[in-house]
Structure formats: C-alpha cells, structure tokens
Write a structure and sequence with these properties.
Length: about 190
Amino acid sequence: NKFHGYRVVNRPYSVVQFLKSAAWRAIPEQYVYIAETDHLLMHALPNLASPGSPMAHVFGYMGANPAHAGIVKNAWPEGGADGYKRVQPIGPSPVVIHRDDLEKVATPWNDIAVWLKTNPEADSRLGWVIEMWGYSIAAAKVGLKHQEFRNFQVEPGGNSGGEQLRDFETKYWVFHYTYQFETMLDGKP
C-alpha cells in the first residue's frame, strides 16, 4: 500500500474523523489530553495550556535544522525557506491542547503526515517518527506555539541513565512504557 505498512499514519486520520463526530461535539471540556495506549499518568497533570499555546513533551530526536529545510518547505510552502525554524521538537502526544486548536491543526496534521510518508525523500530522511513531524509542521503552519516540557514524560529503558531513572515516579507526569524496562535481580534498574 502507499504507506508501506506504516500504520501510525492512522493517528491524525483518526483524530480528523473523531472531530466530525457527535461524540466530539458532546464533550464539554475546553482542553484535551492526547495520550497513547502505553502512557501511564504518574500523578495529576496540570493544565498549563492556553488557546494557541498547547503543552507538549520535547523529543530530543525531533529537532529541525537546516538539513530539514527542503522537506519542511515542500510540506509547508507558505513557511518559506526558514519555515523549519518554527517547527518545534514535539509530537502530538503527550499534548494538552485547547479544543479549538486541535480542530485547527487536525486536518493539516493529517495532510502533511500523508504527504511526508508518500514522499520518498521525506520518508527516507524522517523515518519512524514521520507522523510526529507531520504534527510539528502542521502546528507551525497554523500558528500554534507549544510550551515545551522536557519532564512531561519519561521513556525509561535499557539505555536510560541514572539521572533519568532517579525519582522518575515523581519527576514526570507521564510514564511512557514504550521500551523495555529491565531490572537486575536485586530490583535496581
């Protein structure tokens, strides 16, 4: 198929479809927390978002730089040659976002994610986080400026450093158990 087995591209499509539903219209809350099935809330998540300024986790592997300029410009021509500078190192999850902002970003997120995945150069360069790039570029396109939180979530695993693991149950709002979490026989990570 045109997505080469990349099922994650269904995320923005699912959001677009949900926003068209009666279930979405029935939700009275003004802010939405977007999570994944392997996210565990560690403690109360404060809503620090505001209209036009969602909360997002910073992903160290998502930093746009001049090497991404051409891909970003092709995905978002109106952003111009420097558009990549407005693309934040975030993804669509975990995010706390105002409902109007989610409605504004959903369709561009879907369209850009699909374009990136079906463009051979973008697919090759951006890899498995291409849907996250779709969200980041779409957010810049519609003028959203996310508040970036490095401690929004923790993704501990076999390559975690001691500082990341120290007090992680109180330091982070979300435990993302996407990677293996190995312990020694004495119970220490």
